[in-house]
Specification:
There is one protein chain. This protein has 537 residues and is of the alpha/beta class. The protein folds into three domains: 32-206 and 323-433, 3-Layer(aba) Sandwich (Alkaline Phosphatase, subunit A), CATH 3.40.720.10; 212-316, no CATH class; 456-531, Arylsulfatase, C-terminal domain (2-Layer Sandwich). It has helices at residues 2-32, 60-67, 82-91, 95-98, 114-120, 170-184, 209-215, 235-239, 244-247, 258-263, 280-300, 306-341, 373-376, 403-410, 425-428, 498-514, 519-531, and strands spanning 35-41, 70-72, 75-76, 124-130, 142-146, 156-159, 162-165, 192-197, 348-354, 380-383, 392-394, 398-399, 440-444, 456-460, 464-469, 475-480. The protein starts with a helix and ends in a 6-residue tail after the last helix.
Amino acid sequence: MKTFLRYLLILSGACIFFISCKSKSKEQKETQRPNIVFIMSDDHAYQAISAYSDKLIQTPNIDRLATEGMLFTNASVTNSICAPSRAVILTGKHSHINGKIDNLSPFDTTNITFPQLLQKAGYQTAMFGKLHFGNNPKGFDEFKILPGQGDYYNPTFHTAQGDTTIVGYVTDIITDLTLNWLEERRDPDKPFLLMYLHKAPHRSWLPAERHYREFTKKTFPLPETLFDTYETRGEAARTAEMNILDHMVLNYDNKVFPEVIDELQIKDRKLFDPLEKMSPEQKAQWDSVYGPINADFRKLYPSMNDSTLMVWKYQRYLQDYLGTIAAVDENVGRLLNYLDQKELSKNTLVVYTSDQGFYLGEHGWFDKRFMYEESFKTPLLVKWPNVIDEGITEDEMVQNLDFAQTFLEVAGIIPPSDMQGESLLPLLKGEKEKWEREAVYYHYYEYPAEHAVKRHYGIATKDYKLIHFYYDVDEWELYDCKNDKQEMNNVYMDPNYTHVVQDMKQRLTEVRLKYKDSDSLSNQYIQIYKEKGWIEE
């Protein structure tokens, strides 16, 4: 009996050791797969990140990602508008394939997204902030997302358990939710995907009190092209409705009080009140700063001409827009500091980007939508210790189309064959010789609609950009990106560029075939607009 018990004890110990080793081996395997933190802001122009340019603002926390990792200088989007950009990121497919061509059409939930695949492969997944479409994102263990555009002050969030309203400033709140999840509900035995998505700096720009008190005192340099007349471009540029002087709304955008507009007998559009979610206390603090600004405007306006009003509106725009970015930068710093303090940084891939670029007065514009540079190009900064060398600048042509496949490959998952991007992993690892793309494709659909930017598609290389505006006009534009960085001169009809036009058109034909886009498909989407009554027959 003693021998039997001794044998049983030895056997039990062996089993426990085996199970322990197996469990430890599994845990080690799990922790070897990197965590992924995807940080995206809304309408954050690359010109407003000091790693790209320090003319307007300092963003030391976002810049850390460039200092400690890689800064992409030729990152772009496939469709420069909020919800479609997010759909491209999630699905790894162009808008004409995933179906989310604009902000108006619903997202097809039968699309397979990369978070679903990561979740299925054992990643813990969470999303906090602005998604912009759908109230129940697939592939997430936990989410708290803003309805639609959301609010800057005292925002409401959709959750799996229902809606909840949280008092405070949205950028701070999204970060609080994110850090709380990391601290309280993250499973240390699993790798995680964390999507940390800011509303800021989306219109209408409402900074936090600590920042509007600071930024309303600042003056910013004027863009060289602020008073662009669009004479060397086509009808699309001339008829777009996003000029700061003509189309920026004094009350909604520049925070001129309605009673001041009425008193001065200014004819201006009336949009909804962006301050309606503020508490009386918050509104009182706001009025203490914006009241004097309104008093000054009341005195100045009678003597203003178009030029002085344009400059005044530009300065007011930049003060509020950049003020919202200051909070984003602070809060990115909070997250990065947490990852460092908890020793998570070493095995975490951190990406910072925006859903598209934005005009900060270039060509006299605000907003996005065009394939022109400030709208088409998006910030992209990536940090991944022990994989990405520090302080690297990368100029290869990459797109938001590439994120899904990158994250899947990083996690060791084979991406679905119908995804259309390219994994950025070779570039992140410094294996540039494995990167073959020389051109990227773009297609914008939302017309007629807000800002009246005509439908167009095009192709861009490092040297040239060819654009075709195709609905209610038939115009081509070619830009020499090396010699005309501000894209002021359409050289499509210039005989010196005949060979370039031929080459770029051939490339465009090939890339449209590669991505399965066509004129017939474009016509189908136009017909959908007609059937919904958005386009008159």
